[in-house]
Design goal:
Elements (H helix, E strand, L loop, with lengths): L2 H19 L3 H17 L4 H25 L19 E4 L7 E6 L2 E7 L8 E9 L2 E6 L1
Parallel strand pairs: 3-5
Antiparallel strand pairs: 1-4, 2-3, 4-5
Helix pairs in contact: 1-2, 2-3
């Protein structure tokens, strides 16, 4: 069996395992394996093929890691306005109960509202910061 065939089979196996596990880094390694297959097609020696696979695959993994590390992480779903459309909406709190909760009418229903930890409850307009279960965590505007 030709060297290039082995490299292509390894690249295909890496892609198949990536599809089962969902780790994107295996695709980067598969790029290195494909580069080694191309080097084998070009007639390079086995040592050059191995170095090509290591450099291209390792470089792709390193590049992907640095790209991912540089991005800001997404907010948790409970406080992410892209996931939960209630986050950022405003509502009126008329009275707070002694346990630190309030009952407010919001979107046509009665909701239980809590204030942010460490903040004294105050009446007036509030903005929804996150949704925890069936409770809205709010901050004073």
């Amino acid at each position: 069996m030709a060297d290039s065939t082995v490299w292509w089979l390894l690249a295909g196996a890496a892609v198949a395992v990536e599809l089962m596990t969902g780790t994107f880094y295996l695709l980067m390694l598969a790029i290195g394996l494909a580069a080694a297959a191309l080097a084998a097609h070009a007639g390079a020696a086995l040592t050059v093929q191995l170095v090509t696979a290591a450099l291209v695959g390792g470089g792709a993994v390193t590049g992907w890691y640095l790209l991912r590390r540089g991005r800001a992480t997404a907010a948790p779903a409970a406080s992410n306005p892209d996931v939960n459309l209630d986050v950022g909406e405003t509502l009126m709190v008329d009275t707070w109960l002694p346990d630190g909760t309030a009952q407010v009418r919001y979107r046509g229903a009665i909701w239980t509202v809590t204030h942010l930890p460490g903040v004294a409850p105050a009446t007036g307009m509030h903005r929804v910061r996150e949704v925890v279960g069936s409770r809205l965590v709010v901050e004073k505007i």
